[in-house]
């Protein structure tokens, strides 16, 4: 068999930086790191609660430090971007049919936002009632 070289197309590591749609896609995927960090913080809070009041207060004081608060603001921005882009992508990710008709994508997006607002209001109410 002759010595055959396979053609390998060179792919730059920043291939996605040429078009806005790719930048938005990669950015949304990277913001899943924000989701993971917030999940970890929630688990650490649960762990601190289970350890007792002293551990909970110590962890809460760390969470109130200025550096951590700035980090939370940045993470919240990432989470908002992630959520908004996911809600806008939902009609493409799932097709909903009622009877024999397809539900319009706009209605799916609006229902996602409505659910987000309702859940947020319930959480705010629960926090203020405590």
Short recap of the structure:
Helix content is 73%, strand content 3%.
User: Strands of the largest sheet, in order across it?
Assistant: 1-2
CATH topology of the largest domain: 3 helical TM bundles of succinate and fumarate reductases
CATH homologous group name of the largest domain: Fumarate reductase/succinate dehydrogenase, transmembrane subunit
CATH architecture tag of the largest domain = Up-down Bundle
Instruction: Give the overall form.
Output: flat
Strand content: under 5%
Low-confidence stretches: none
Largest sheet: 2 strands, antiparallel
Order of helices and strands: HHHHEEH
For the termini, the CA-CA separation is 78 Å
Structural class: mainly alpha
Helix content: over 70%
Report the average pLDDT across residues: 91
Write a concise keyword list for the protein shown above.
mainly alpha, 5 helices, 130 residues, two-stranded antiparallel ribbon, 3 helical TM bundles of succinate and fumarate reductases, 2 domains
How is this structure best described in words?
With 130 residues, the protein is mainly α. It has two domains: 16-83, 3 helical TM bundles of succinate and fumarate reductases, CATH 1.20.1300.10; 94-130, no CATH class. The protein has five helices and two strands; from the N terminus they run ααααββα. It has helices at residues 20-30, 32-51, 53-63, 66-93, 105-129, and strands spanning 97-98, 101-102. The chain has a two-stranded antiparallel ribbon. A hairpin with a 2-residue loop joins strand 1 (97-98) and strand 2 (101-102). Helix 4 runs antiparallel to helix 5 (105-129). It starts with 19 loop residues before the first helix and ends with a helix.
């Amino acid at each position: 068999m002759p010595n055959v070289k396979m053609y390998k197309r060179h792919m730059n590591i920043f291939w996605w930086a040429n078009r806005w749609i790719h930048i938005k896609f990669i950015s949304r995927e990277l913001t899943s790191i924000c989701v993971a960090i917030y999940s970890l913080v929630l688990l650490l809070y649960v762990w601190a609660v289970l350890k007792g009041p002293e551990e909970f207060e110590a962890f809460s004081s760390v969470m109130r430090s200025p550096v951590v608060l700035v980090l939370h603001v940045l993470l919240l921005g990432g989470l908002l971007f992630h959520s908004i882009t996911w809600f806008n992508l939902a009609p493409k990710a799932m097709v909903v049919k009622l009877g024999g008709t397809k539900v319009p994508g706009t209605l799916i997006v609006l229902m996602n936002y409505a659910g987000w607002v309702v859940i947020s209001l319930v959480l705010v109410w629960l926090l203020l009632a405590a």
